[in-house]
Structures are given as C-alpha cells and as structure tokens.
Amino acid sequence: MKPALKHFFDSMGAYFARPGPESLERLYAEHPGWDAPRERVAVYGDFVRGHVRGVLEKVFPLVRGAVGAEAWSALVEDFTLTRPARHHELNHLAEGFPAFVADAAASRGLAPFVPALARFEWTDFAVFASEAPSPESVERLTANPTLMVLEHPFRLCAYVRAKGALAEPEAGDELALLWRHPARLVTFYVEATPPALLVLKMAVEGLSVEDVAAATGMSAADLRSSVERFSLDGLVLAPRGSGV
Q1: What is the pLDDT of residue 204?
Q2: pTM for this one?
C-alpha cells in the first residue's frame, strides 16, 4: 500500500473510532486542502459506527442477552475505539470481537462462559458465510469442507439451541462440530459424539463400513445407519447411490 493511501486509511480509522467535532477537525488537519463538506463526513462517521453496532447485535445476540444492556453498550463502544471499522464486508467487522471479549472478561466481571459463547457465535456466522467450495458430488465419503471444531469448558450446544431460554450453560468439557448444510445452507452444530467422530474418521481416512466393522467388531448395519444419518445432516458428503 502506498504511504499516502495508508495515511488516509489510518486517519479515517482514528476518526471512525470516535467521531465528533474534535476528531473531525483532527481528520481535516491530517489532510490540508481537503474540501469535502464537513457535514457529510460527520454523517458518514456516525453511519459507520451504527453499522458496527448493528453487525455486532446481529452476530452476537446471545452474548448481548447474557451480559445485559449496560455491559453490552460498554463492550460495543470500547470495541469500536480499539478496533475501528476497516473491512469492506460489513459482517467481518465483528471478527475481532471474540478476542476482545476474552481480553475484557475478567476486568469487566463477565460470566466465565461469555468469551466461549462469543467465539461460538462468530464461528456459527463464519461457517454460514464460508467460501469453502462444496462439491456437487463426491466419489467417496468426504468430510463437509465447511466443518469447524470448537473446544470449550461449557455445554454450549444445548445453550445455543435453547436460544437464550437458559440462564447460563452447564459447565463441562465439550467438543462442538459446526458446519453448513450443503442443501439447506444453514449452520448445523452438535456435540461431537463417538458416532459422529467415527463417521468423520471414516471420511478423513477413507475407511469403508466393511473395513471398520471388521476392525472393531461393530455391527455393519449400525455403522451404515450412522453414516446415513450424518450424511443427511450434511456433516459428511456421501457418493450418490452409494447406499450409505
């Protein structure tokens, strides 16, 4: 990036962090001779900050509900001050929010599960918006290319599924699987149960039902049922007409 362009973005970033009369004057002082109408620039600054708040409220509704209105407003304000809006795609303005929440949790007295919940909600969105190509057909059992794995010390899958009806998630180690369904195009998430992990292992290592049944003594019918179930859910992609 050319120095002049970097200077422009840096100065606009500082303005977006805290738009107001004083920061507006500092912005113009950084660019002598700039004749853009001050009224329009002021409106643009408020417009950008409003977008940041709107994106955070859309992507992190459960975090917002968990911390309460006052703490949420303070988080949004301070996040905007330390991480001004720069990404061209609005939803990605929220990408750094989970790390910000994790850093701020202790000093602000947030519940211990809130940082993990913020990471879960961002991952939910990131999986939904993933640009990973999903093949129309596969030759063998294949893991969903949008799959992401989260590990945390809370039962967040049940908490998120309850959509805020629970006061807080239960404590307990959880490995969560999140992926975008290839047909329904929505994020699915489940706790990583032994059957789910076994089907993923089959997909990653290219193991057939017969191979696993012979090696483990498990019922081939039960294995095939698990593969069919997780194929329907989109966790794995199965060849058409494969019978699994």
Answers
A1: 95
A2: 0.80
